[in-house]
Write a structure and sequence with these properties.
Radius of gyration of chain A: 21 Å
Number of domains of chain A: 1
CATH architecture of chain A: 4-Layer Sandwich
Structural class of chain A: alpha+beta
Mean pLDDT of chain A: 92
Distance between the termini of chain A: 35 Å
CATH superfamily of chain A: Chorismate synthase AroC
CATH class of chain A: Alpha Beta
Low-confidence stretches of chain A: none
Number of helices of chain A: 7
Helix content of chain A: 25-40%
Number of strands of chain A: 17
Oligomer: homotetramer
Largest interface: A-B, 109 and 109 residues
Amino acid sequence: MNTFGRNFRCTTFGESHGKAVGVVVDGCPPGIPLAEADIQPYLDRRRPGKSPLESARQETDRVEILSGTFEGRTTGAPIALVVRNRDVQSGDYDALRDVFRPGHADYTWQAKYGLRDHRGGGRSSGRETLARVAAGAGAGRRPSPYRLAVPGRLIEVHAATDPAAMESEIRAARDAGDSVGGIVEVTAAGCPAGLGDPVFSKLDAAIAGAMMGIGAVKGVELGEGFGAARLFGSEMNDPITEAGFSSNHAGGVLGGISTGQDIVVRLAVKPTPSIRKAQRTVDTAGKEREISVEGRHDPCIAPRVVPVAECMLAIVILDALLEQAKYRGFSGE
Amino acid sequence: MNTFGRNFRCTTFGESHGKAVGVVVDGCPPGIPLAEADIQPYLDRRRPGKSPLESARQETDRVEILSGTFEGRTTGAPIALVVRNRDVQSGDYDALRDVFRPGHADYTWQAKYGLRDHRGGGRSSGRETLARVAAGAGAGRRPSPYRLAVPGRLIEVHAATDPAAMESEIRAARDAGDSVGGIVEVTAAGCPAGLGDPVFSKLDAAIAGAMMGIGAVKGVELGEGFGAARLFGSEMNDPITEAGFSSNHAGGVLGGISTGQDIVVRLAVKPTPSIRKAQRTVDTAGKEREISVEGRHDPCIAPRVVPVAECMLAIVILDALLEQAKYRGFSGE
Amino acid sequence: MNTFGRNFRCTTFGESHGKAVGVVVDGCPPGIPLAEADIQPYLDRRRPGKSPLESARQETDRVEILSGTFEGRTTGAPIALVVRNRDVQSGDYDALRDVFRPGHADYTWQAKYGLRDHRGGGRSSGRETLARVAAGAGAGRRPSPYRLAVPGRLIEVHAATDPAAMESEIRAARDAGDSVGGIVEVTAAGCPAGLGDPVFSKLDAAIAGAMMGIGAVKGVELGEGFGAARLFGSEMNDPITEAGFSSNHAGGVLGGISTGQDIVVRLAVKPTPSIRKAQRTVDTAGKEREISVEGRHDPCIAPRVVPVAECMLAIVILDALLEQAKYRGFSGE
Amino acid sequence: MNTFGRNFRCTTFGESHGKAVGVVVDGCPPGIPLAEADIQPYLDRRRPGKSPLESARQETDRVEILSGTFEGRTTGAPIALVVRNRDVQSGDYDALRDVFRPGHADYTWQAKYGLRDHRGGGRSSGRETLARVAAGAGAGRRPSPYRLAVPGRLIEVHAATDPAAMESEIRAARDAGDSVGGIVEVTAAGCPAGLGDPVFSKLDAAIAGAMMGIGAVKGVELGEGFGAARLFGSEMNDPITEAGFSSNHAGGVLGGISTGQDIVVRLAVKPTPSIRKAQRTVDTAGKEREISVEGRHDPCIAPRVVPVAECMLAIVILDALLEQAKYRGFSGE
């Protein structure tokens, strides 16, 4: 299912080398100012080709709002956002038509659907995240007394945690024709207490699903995360005082519901699967092949996960805010 | 929302100290043999009070099938499973009526709903997982050529990984009036390739949501998980040979779709928040209080997460199998 | 799918001659007073056996609230309502085990699922509506400044529109070993303007789906309904004045959204398919048979559709109120 | 919610005078041949301006497939279909900016959202149905042994049932500056037995919701429909013989599940609300106004409902086929 969210529903479409990538946002409240200029900066930030360490693909992505606004404001109608694909060098992928790239969705997509658009990963391309960023950018436009902010950053690359060391690790991997993984942390500040459901649709469960739903992510944790396994209850529990919680080991969620503190999420991002180094694989006929993935690839995809993770976190929280608003609006009748 | 799953939809209900806990399973295929005796062993396995290291609460839970079967087989109608609550000592909780236990959902539930059933955690109690286990037990009854198995186990407690050492850690925590966290690993064997969607409804995203939706879980990872952040692409990518994948760093999912290998999931479980040790908190009037949570509590909840995680993983996979069956059934018309 | 509603979600379960019939209501706002005594009168009203013209089946249905309330109020947790089946004379149905009753779901259920609970129609029995009435009764308990009322009544039986004439038609059909159809009208008074969506999830579309989803209903119309096909636009359009709409040909919905006027719905109910008169049919082996359906059947099912239609209309409107409350609550933050 | 369908999910977007109207179809099985040329004829058929009795608006609608196909076949990825709006004379609507047209969604949209795109009805325009037709055209492309056909036709206008008489009624209404209603009948031939669910998601309930969800529709009936209220059970029940059902009073659905016979649906369509004749209304300030709706309007909208109803019926049936395919595919594993 290509739709995310219960109340703020984002349906993305598009393939890496198709005509366009886009999203229909359904459930956005009416009256919110929204124009292309509000969304474009988020896409620019996500865009590759800005540093020598990133893919050189030139994506001069221009978003167009096709529907859902009138005189600069949302109307309550579905908002369709479309970005035309331009810098498409599909020929680059001809050699990959019948070969499954290791670490990619090539093999599994074929197993599932029986046919696939091999060009640039098709629907499974990271380019699809552009649609999520566009939707999340819209989410960020909502006026609110909460002043939600969702800053993310790269906190680790191949065990390095210092920015210069992280850059050095990425450079070394690139020069070796290889790639390297990393860890991203996103924090949501300004989220009120009371968001999320006690069972199944917990806020942290929704966050985990959203984050693991980003390509290349292999792990998600909140607050102490995996470190919680090494703590005592007396260390993990956040005492409550008259001034509020005195620590945030929980990462902003207790029993699936937000505490009002910062929501702190970390994502483990695997190394970019496309590497120049030779790898063993098979073709669609099952015959073994050696493959070296040429082309424009990020040696570390983690930095580019940052804006996507931010946008997904914003969408999850906005979705929960709308869910919670139901009760407020109802009792306030 | 108290419903989990798109095709195999489980709606749970019930509170720790209410009349009953149960689940309605909607979307179960017809013709599958199902009786109380098929479900009961899973509940018995989940039940506490079996070891000195577990809560002494005696839950002689007997499941009753209220609907959805006829002459021992499912009919395609919704299956209601109910377990009456019996060993209810609500009086134990009188002292907690107006106090928020640290690490629990007490504070957040109050923030969300404005009122709460304080007895034993109410709806946020771990007892609700009984309903998930019952549903998952039903899921396990499906006949299939795949012979899906979802064995789980405790692999770490407070950094200890040897069973005797783990038990010792739990005992020490208990004796100190404290609790301790752990890590659980669940593996799904026999899952065919092709399950899960490429975007949003990825199999690993669904698994992450399901696992983080279990109480006390603070982190989820597949395959190399957070370790992937320290690997090179040439280490992480699983080569494909004529005999299939030659390693499983991915943990059985690529691009959100199952590879046909084992699906390997790990969960970080925080220490049980209920501890005898004194903690600072506030009451519903906002006044500071010191609290010592007496009663029957597991010093380490991680072992009891195992059967719940197994059942949730079985449900996620069955749900994805049904989704995938749509295409098979359609093209086979 | 056995769930109805987007915000106020009702999942029913149970068969006519199984152990119980019930419903789980998920999404009910917290803080609403609710006890068995609030629901029971609705069930009593729906119950058959109250007049010589109704089925003599004695259903002393007692509802039990299994979850979702605490100290007499809803908590926001799912509300499970269960009614045990008692006066079950399954033996009556032995003769029907292998025969498809004309006009019933016997043949189609078998075609769909390959097996069926033949006793009293199984899941397709009208007894399932008991669960909807219980859910709708809960819906009626919500406190609101709107004072929503959903009175329904029988307005036509076999072309007769006078109550005495309708009763006479029913009596004549019964005495002839036959049954007869009728028309039910339900009006929702007190529904505010602004409920329903402009596309797909229109309020009238939701109402039509809910009403056609009641067994034996073959047609649904709002306002002028089929009569609108014989009107000019100048007759059909409701003029708007400073005092509001000056007529209600629309039946309370324009463009899928409520106008604030009464919502007027009519349902065509077919004659009870169970009749004593001999009918031709086949058995499960495909062999022709003659059948005469003995047992306790209403000669006209339309009167018993009234409370079900009322409850379904209440549920649809409450669901739309909650949906609309989202926007109110959100902008009011 | 702007999404229709559970398995074949159609999310439409766009306003009458915005940049484009479109649909994202999610859940379409892979491998189905699909090109713009397959969809265009359906749009051409829906297009107005083909007869002197229709709106003169020249909609040279050209559909573009933005995603979801590769080398002429569907891939399983979401299919985005977009039609740019061209012949937009928004100036025509300036006079209507602050006035609520009677019989339209103007008043109710304002009540719901607090602001609206007044141009041509905005999102509530009949032009949105273009997206549904595009989606339904795609639905019609599926290869199937069932050879589903969904022919619709106008069967009544202002009580006239003869084609010449119907045309004469429409002409007379137009010449009087008025409009007139009608009845549309759509039949689905080739639908297998077993589609639809026994409760809530009944096939006829889904059809009723889909049909009432088309603008201007005020009533829906299947088979005998409202006429069933005037029949005896012995007349209404369809006898079953070795050769199958010997009549089709039910209209192809029993107990919510298809019988395998033709599905026969009738829709009551109200007169076009836009008429030249003077009508009383109010403006957004609540002040009374007289309005005469000039512009290009169909004096009878019923003929143009035909292709929309056909497409919606095809979508509902395809959705149910996919749902049913789940069980087939599952048991066939």
